[in-house]
Amino acid sequence: MTFVPDEGYFFGMGAFETIAVENGKPIFLKEHFERLGRALDFLGYDFPETEIEKQIQHNLGKPQMKEGRKALKICVSQKNVLVLPRENTYGEEIVSKGFHTDLCSTRRNETSPFVYHKTFQYGDCIREKRLAKERGIHEPVFLNTKGMIAEGAVSNVFFVKNGQIYTPKVSCGLLPGIIRRYVMRTCPVTEREVYPYEVMECDEMFLTNSLMGIMPVVSFEGYRFPSRETADRLAAEYRAFIFSVTVKNRL
Fold it and tell me: What is the pLDDT of residues 139-191, one digit of tens each?
């Protein structure tokens, strides 16, 4: 496949999706396509659905994609469509240990329309993720310009207090994730503004994205959460859901 330099390469004007693949079955493919379509419409590009589907099927036909937990990354820019297989590094052992989190030094700009789409303009996330790793942190969390919690570098954030689950509003400056929507569809969740000091009063925190699924959080800014009961329950329910989807696909 020939790469053609375009607005994606020069200006970050492109969109991407990372899709979990379980035993050869893409998870939430329809939802990922819908979000990709919205991002491309925002950028003013056509949605090359036929070419994407062709490349997806080609990659799913590879032997290494047929078993276990894998992923596909779809990248679309003005003149290029690229679908690549990749590993899913979020294994059960990582989930069992949970994540340590803290705050980013960079603020999420909730006034930028790019925040609400999954585009190539991802430099803040990659840089903060690398800096966090140097501190021994699994996932850094962005505040917006008003000091409210927005999202993780590659995840949406949820909190639990007295049995109530809540998560930042989309307007706080976050990409509404596929698994975020799954959680909000399967159990009661309140969307509201969340400030860092409130987190220290919470019983639990957990993260979501398409590859990690539901990830329990051990600590935030050094505060250790007393429980992970809700996160563990939701993670187990999500894994059961994925199992049912992949089994149905094989029958």
Answer: 999 999 999 999 999 999 999 999 999 999 999 999 999 999 999 999 999 99
The pair of structure tokens assigned to 186 is 């399967």
- Decide if 25 contacts 249 (C-beta within 8 A): yes
Identity at 122, one-letter amino acid code: Y
**The domain 92-239 is classified under which CATH number: 3.40.1130.10, 3.40.50.2300, 3.30.420.150, 3.20.10.10?**
3.20.10.10
Domain with residues 7-87, CATH architecture: 2-Layer Sandwich (3.30)
CB atoms within 10 A of CB 166: 19
Task: Please tell me whether the overall predicted TM-score, pTM, comes out greater than 0.70 for this model.
Answer: yes
CB 120 within 8 A of CB 139: no
pLDDT of 131 reads 98
Q: Locate tokens 């590993």: which residue?
A: 87
